[in-house]
Design brief:
The mean pLDDT is 95. The protein is α/β, with parallel strands linked by helices and 552 residues long. It has a seven-stranded parallel β-sheet. Strands 8-9-10-11-13-12 form a six-stranded mixed β-sheet, sandwiched between helices. It has 16 helices and 24 strands. It starts with a strand and ends in an 8-residue tail after the last strand. The longest helix has 17 residues. A hairpin with a 2-residue loop joins strand 3 and strand 4. The protein binds zinc ion. Zinc ion (ZN) binds next to loops.
């Protein structure tokens, strides 16, 4: 007898071989059997300890976010929210900083995240921040995660009060008189990190707890954390310990795959025959762990962001004098790092946004596969944002998984359209052309860069409109069913776990989400407004709004 049967459901299995299902049984945390109707459920003599009637609600595999920053999300839930809305202008931003400063002791940190200069007119300014938060240390992170602004006490602590220094792979912005403005780009952000990092494990475990509770409410059952342990995205060299601590105390709410920042990999001293040049101690690499917590790809940054004009593009940004962006290291050095990681058995996830950075990643993957052939390495390109038509074909031929964020359309789309100019609008954040090239598309948010609920992501993947209502490369729109497939099977595939999740298939993990309505049956403009009624992991109800009798 099964542990649980969910009957009278509109089941979207995301398993092409099993389209017509209305009842699902679960045993031992796994999907056991499927039935096309309640009658068939009885005919097949399926029975369960507990039978829950979903009254026609839509049942799907749980959502997987293939690229998110979980600790960053949990942290930003406790920081000043500088995103727009609610923040409509620079003055409103300074007022929000002033309110938080009043509640903060002198000498302590006032932190905020999510501001976007494209929406409030300009980056915040150190002098105005000094006035808003006298005597406090102010650190405001840009929505892209690629920039931040600090005030004078922080600059003083960094020795940058009066003049900038060169930072390889980054930039300390200055006023015309040479005095730093407070804006720190890309790797220059690591300077602030040195003042606050490492965070204590207990602080990080709290953030994991806070983020995970939110993820469950959004219908997420699995996510890939896009970089821990080092570089400017890491929070502590023992960041994995925070995930273990959260798990040990029952506060790891969703399944997590952890990408490892490339800075953490080091020479292993293994036998030369092994080819294991680079890795983590003991030879730990991609795939180590279990269903709840495992090591994913190594994350290698090649460039920055489009809205910040720091992504490396072949042709200049649209406005005069905005340049070509930059690679975060020498191209040959980046290629060598990618090839070494490949040779050492890692899945490689290269952050590449501009078409010039994407070429670096594609060339490196191509060379790696020729020099050190490996079956199905499933290397990834994170964001894959500004993509020439030939690059789609190249990525498909190499078996690369592109991980674009359709979700960016409505929150960052206007800024991106302006950055690249109309000639390149139809290269932005492709989806449909990737599917047409035979690639598997995952669903992801890059949360906390933007609000990360999958229903918002699905909405944007289908509707492709910016905040101002402009079409965002609408030729790349996909159907709601394709978008759901991305957020379920596609994300499982990108983390090499489609054998255990991503569809409602007997034998797979019983990770499920119940929605109020069917995203493939409502008009596209309503997708974002649908409700998550319940989230189930391992056959256990972990989140429930109380709409389904007998579920929890
Ligand atoms: Zn990211």
């Amino acid at each position: 007898m099964a542990d649980l049967a969910l009957v009278n459901a509109n089941v979207l299995t995301m398993d092409p071989g099993r389209p017509l299902v209305s009842a699902v049984t679960i045993t031992g945390g796994r999907i056991e059997a499927l039935a096309a109707s309640s009658a068939q459920f009885r005919l097949a003599e399926l029975s369960a300890d507990r039978v829950v009637d979903l009254h026609g609600a839509t049942l799907l595999p749980g959502f997987g976010d293939a690229h998110n920053h979980m600790i960053g999300s949990g942290r930003s839930l406790a920081e000043i929210d500088l995103s727009s809305p609610p923040i409509g202008s620079l003055d409103e931003l300074y007022a929000a900083v002033a309110r938080r400063a009043e509640a903060t002791a002198p000498g302590d940190w006032v932190t905020g995240s999510g501001y976007d200069q494209n929406k409030i007119g300009a980056h915040p300014d150190r002098d105005a921040l000094d006035r808003a938060a006298p005597g406090r240390l102010v650190w405001l992170r840009h929505t892209s995660g690629h920039m931040c602004v600090v005030n004078s006490p922080v600059l003083a602590a960094l020795g940058l009060e009066a003049a900038a220094t060169d930072v390889p792979g980054g930039r300390v912005d200055t006023y015309p008189d040479g005095r730093p403005s407070g804006l720190l780009e890309e790797r220059a952000q690591a300077l602030v990190g040195a003042l606050v990092y490492p965070f204590p494990v207990a602080f990080l475990a709290d953030a994991i707890d806070r983020a995970g509770a939110q993820y469950l409410a959004d219908g997420i059952t699995s996510c890939t954390e896009a970089g821990i342990g080092g570089g400017w995205i890491g929070h502590s060299p023992v960041e994995l310990a925070a995930y273990q601590a959260a798990r040990d105390t029952g506060r790891l709410h969703v399944r997590v795959e952890l990408m490892v920042a490339s800075e953490v990999l080091h020479a292993l001293g293994a036998h030369p025959d092994d080819g294991l040049e680079w890795g983590l101690d003991l030879g730990i690499r991609t795939g180590f762990g279990d269903d709840w917590l495992r090591i994913g790809a190594v994350k290698i940054f090649t460039d920055g962001s489009l809205v910040g004009r720091t992504a490396a593009v072949h042709d200049e940004y649209a406005a005069p004098g905005e340049g070509h962006g930059y690679l975060q290291a020498d191209g040959a050095e980046l290629r060598a790092a990618i090839i070494t990681a490949h040779r050492s058995g890692w899945q490689v996830a290269t952050h590449a946004i501009g078409d010039r950075a994407i070429d670096v990643a594609l060339e490196a993957y191509a060379q790696a596969l020729v020099q050190y052939p490996r079956r199905d390495p499933r290397h990834r390109i994170e964001h894959f944002a500004l993509v020439q038509p030939r690059q789609v074909a190249q990525a498909a031929a190499l078996g690369v998984i592109a991980v674009p964020q359709g979700r960016f359309a409505s929150e960052l789309g206007d800024g991106m359209l302006a950055a690249v100019g109309p000639k390149r609008h139809d290269w932005l954040y492709r989806q449909r052309s990737l599917l047409e090239a035979g690639m598997v598309l995952p669903g992801s948010s890059d949360r906390p860069v933007v609000a990360g609920a999958p229903l918002l992501g699905l909405h944007d993947m289908v509707n492709r409109r910016t905040a101002s209502g402009a079409p965002f490369n609408p030729g790349e729109a996909i159907t709601a069913l394709q978008a759901l497939y991305a957020y379920t099977f596609g994300s499982a595939y990108a983390s090499r776990q489609e054998n255990i999740k991503g569809s409602i298939t007997p034998g797979k993990l019983a990770d499920l989400v119940v929605l109020s309505e069917d995203p493939t049956a409502v008009s596209p403009d309503r997708i974002a407004g649908l409700q998550v009624l319940a989230t189930i992991i391992d056959g256990q109800c972990r989140y429930d709004v109380g709409a389904i009798e007998g579920l929890s």
